[in-house]
Amino acid sequence: VLYWLQTEAPRTDGGTGFPGLRPRPDVTGTRDGLAKAAYVRESRRIKAVTTVTEHDVSIDLLGPYGRTRHRDSVGVGNYRIDLHPSTGGDGYVDIGSVPFEIPLGALVPRRVRNLLPAGKNLGTTHITNGCYRLHPVEWNVGEVAGALAAHCLAEDVEPHQVQAEDKRFEEFAGVLDRDGVQRHWPDVRGY
C-alpha cells in the first residue's frame, strides 16, 4: 500500500503518487517507523449498567429527528454504524444513525468495582460499537472516565453511586459542564 501511495495514488493536480510519503520513526518511536502495536478495531467490551443498542442510534428506528435522551448523558457522538466483513463471510454493514448521547451507565460495569472503560470498550453491542468506536467518542469516554475517577476519589463514592443517584450524578454533570464537555445535542427542530 505504501509503495502505491508513493507512486500511483491519484493527486488533485492530475499527477500520481506522493513520493515524500514515508514511515516516520521519529513520530512512532520505532526503528522502522511502523506502529508499536497493531490497531484493534473492536475490543472486548464491559457488561455495563446500560448497554447501547441499535434502538438507541438507528435512524431507521428513530427517524431523522429522533434521539434517545439519557438522564445520565456524559457526552455526544455522531457516526454511521459501519461493520466490516468478517472471516465468517459477513458482508459490509452500513446503517444510518442519528446523533447520540453517551450514557454514563455504558461506562459503569454491572458487577465489577474499581474498573472504568476509557475507550471503545464501554457497554455497546457488536452493532452499535460500529458508531461508538470512532476516535472522538473514544476520547470523550476517556476524558469522562478520568474525570469520574477523580470525582469518585474526591467524594469518596463509587461510579455506581454517581450513575444511579440523581443528586450525585448532577454534581458530577456539573464538573463535566464546567470542563466544557458537551453532554446533549441541541434540538434539531429549533424549538
What does the model show?
This protein is mainly alpha-helical. The protein folds into two domains: 1-38, no CATH class; 54-178, no CATH class. It is 32% helix and 8% strand. The strands form two sheets. The protein has a two-stranded antiparallel ribbon with strand order 1-4.
Which SSEs are present, and which pair or pack?
Layout: H1 2-7, H2 25-28, H3 54-57, H4 59-62, E1 73-77, E2 81-83, E3 93-95, E4 100-103, H5 129-132, H6 135-155, H7 159-164, H8 166-178
Antiparallel strand pairs: 1-4, 2-3
In short:
The chain is mainly alpha-helical and 191 residues long. It is 32% helix and 8% strand. The strands form two sheets. The chain has a two-stranded antiparallel ribbon with strand order 1-4. The protein has a two-stranded antiparallel ribbon with strand order 2-3.
- Trace the largest sheet across and list its strands: 1-4
Order of helices and strands: HHHHEEEEHHHH
Query: What is the total number of structural domains?
Result: 2
- What is the end-to-end distance? 49 Å
Percentage of residues assigned to helices:
25-40%
The number of strands is: 4
Strand portion: 5-15%
What structural category arises from helix and sheet content?
A: mainly alpha
Q: Number of DSSP helices?
A: 8
Stretches with pLDDT under 50, minimum 5 residues: none
Which word captures the global form? globular
Radius of gyration: 20 Å
Major sheet size, sense and barrel closure: 2 strands, antiparallel
Mean pLDDT across all residues, rounded? 91
Characteristic key phrases:
191 residues, mainly alpha, two-stranded antiparallel sheet, 8 helices, 32% helix
